[in-house]
Write a structure and sequence with these properties.
With 248 residues, chain A is mostly helical. Chain A contains 11 helices and no strands. The chains are: A mainly alpha (248), B alpha/beta (262).
């Protein structure tokens, strides 16, 4: 247990020390939130769908957690290149504990990042429908963080250097984001797009978050919870397995 | 303490370590010498549970590193050849983390941290982030960290690379004390023959993944008719310069050369 705690603490220390990075990584969500939120609002309203800022804010918060947790997971590659990974791998601690410590740390920082964007969204005019949904919303954010940290760990355990990183960005992160319904409603989609959104894990995270915050879920909260919870368990196991296979 | 029998490790077709066997006794200081790319680091990685052997058996204190990695790791300490510090943490935090990972009780940990940081001249700068350290300071911190828990076997992979004579002197003095006072077995690699000559009981010379000679410094000198260990080393391994097998491409090149034969 000690190892899990110290590795969790390490991730947090590193996170709070990189203030410039924290600020920089707020830039993209802010653009989505403000430019899209305000920009598409008139069209959205004319379409009879209500306030777009209100609709897109949960999507952007989920996106922030997605990016942040995936990158923290992939940070494994840096730790491998700077050598620190070796130091933890030869310690008399089961690799599973090391992986859990790293994952908890990365997921925590991703969650904090998401909450920062949520605060900005509220400042920009986003209003959750009630406080009752907030704990459930937080739970969905945490699930998104765990799911994608595990994906990041899996990718980071498999890639040896940063050259594959761009590929991961283009073929994994962006599709997950754009096919998730973070930016558009899941109703009345073309058949192919509808099918793709259904196999994207983030869809259920965003939908759950939207259900909790603005009472506008496409699926039931229970379904979202079951899918995300199940994925969190399965993907963490896959990540742990890949992590256990790392050879330096 | 360390028993290695017919150990082989392949990377693709390239034999990094080729059928080596040796034993290190409890309380011994054993040196592994060889040119760059000879297989030293690969051997250390296998002994320290970081790599699995392709074939052959390894026993560390009677334990199998592949089957009982955690038990083996409890018994060993390592100073790696290349950096393995967290650059975004301070020196103090790096040591704290290490102490926690190795289950060193807090009180003992703090005492040792202070002693080691002072020994290696880092005490005044313990709060600084490691990325602000010079290369030599990082090296010293790395060594201090490896000595923080008292292992039964200490692996030192070219520990003195980039160290000034003062720090080297401190390091070997400390290693010898650990060996004599606490009976720590030491397995080291180095390119400095005088160091091996000074500290090591027995020396194995490895080249192209094979052990070409093994014995005390005096025996190696006698068998090659050399006056110094350096001469003996050159007599056994030849005088041409090796390339380090850093990347897969380098390894392939090494492999191609190995196949062609010399």
């Amino acid at each position: 247990m000690g190892a899990i705690y110290v590795l969790w603490l390490r991730e947090l220390k590193r996170y709070f020390r990189s203030r410039a990075q924290i600020a920089a990584s707020l830039g993209q969500p802010l653009l989505y939130l403000l430019a899209l939120g305000y920009g598409l609002s008139p069209v959205f309203r004319r379409g009879g769908e209500g306030n777009y800022l209100q609709f897109v804010a949960p999507g952007v918060i989920a996106m922030t957690v997605l990016f942040s947790s995936l990158f923290s997971g992939i940070q494994l590659i840096w730790d491998r290149q700077f050598g620190f990974l070796k130091e933890t791998l030869v310690a008399p601690v089961p690799r599973l504990h090391i992986m859990i410590g790293r994952t908890c740390g990365a997921a925590t920082t991703a969650l904090i990042q998401g909450l920062l964007v949520a605060a900005v969204a509220v400042a920009a005019g986003f209003r959750p429908v009630g406080v009752g949904g907030l704990p459930l919303g937080l739970a969905f954010l945490a699930l998104i963080a765990v799911v994608f940290t595990a994906v990041g760990t899996t990718v980071g355990s498999t890639l040896r250097d940063m050259q594959g990183f761009q590929m991961v960005m283009n073929f994994l992160v962006m599709p997950i984001f754009f096919l998730s319904g973070a930016l558009y409603p899941l109703e009345h989609l073309p058949v192919l797009l509808a099918a793709l959104t259904r196999i994207d894990p983030l869809t259920y995270g965003v939908d759950g978050l939207r259900g909790a915050l603005i009472a506008r879920g496409h699926f039931t909260s229970l379904l979202d919870l079951v899918v995300m919870g199940g994925l969190a368990v399965v993907l963490t196991l896959v990540g742990a397995w890949r992590f256990s296979r790392i050879e330096i | 303490m360390i028993v290695v029998e017919h150990l082989t490790r392949k990377f693709g077709e390239f034999l990094a370590v080729h059928d080596i066997s040796f034993q290190v006794e409890r309380g011994e200081i054993f040196a592994f010498l060889g040119p760059n790319g000879a297989g030293k680091t690969t051997t250390i990685k296998i002994l320290t549970t970081l790599l699995a052997p392709s074939s052959g058996t390894v026993r560390i204190d009677g334990l199998d590193p592949t089957r009982q990695p955690t038990e083996v790791r409890q018994r060993i300490g390592i100073v790696f050849q290349d950096p393995s510090l967290d650059q975004n943490l301070s020196a103090w935090e790096n040591l704290e983390l290490h102490g926690a990972l190795y289950h060193v009780p807090r009180k003992v940990r703090r005492e040792r941290m202070q002693a080691l940081l002072s020994l290696f001249g880092l005490w005044d700068r313990r709060e600084e982030l490691v990325k602000q350290y010079s290369g030599g300071m990082m090296r010293r911190l790395e060594i201090a960290r490896g000595l923080l828990h008292t292992p039964r076997i200490l692996f030192l992979d070219e520990p003195t690379l980039g160290l000034d004579p003062q720090s080297r002197n401190q390091l070997w003095g400390h290693v010898k004390r650990l060996n004599q006072d606490e009976g720590v077995t030491v397995f080291l690699t180095t390119h400095y023959m005088d160091e091996a000559d000074r500290v090591a009981g027995r020396i194995a010379i490895i080249d192209h993944g094979r052990i070409v000679s093994l014995g005390t410094s005096a025996e190696l000198k006698a068998s090659t008719g050399s006056a110094t260990l350096e001469e003996a080393f050159l007599a056994l391994t030849g005088t041409d310069i090796r390339e380090e097998s850093g990347t897969a491409a380098d390894r392939m090149r090494m492999a191609a050369r190995a196949w062609r034969g010399r």
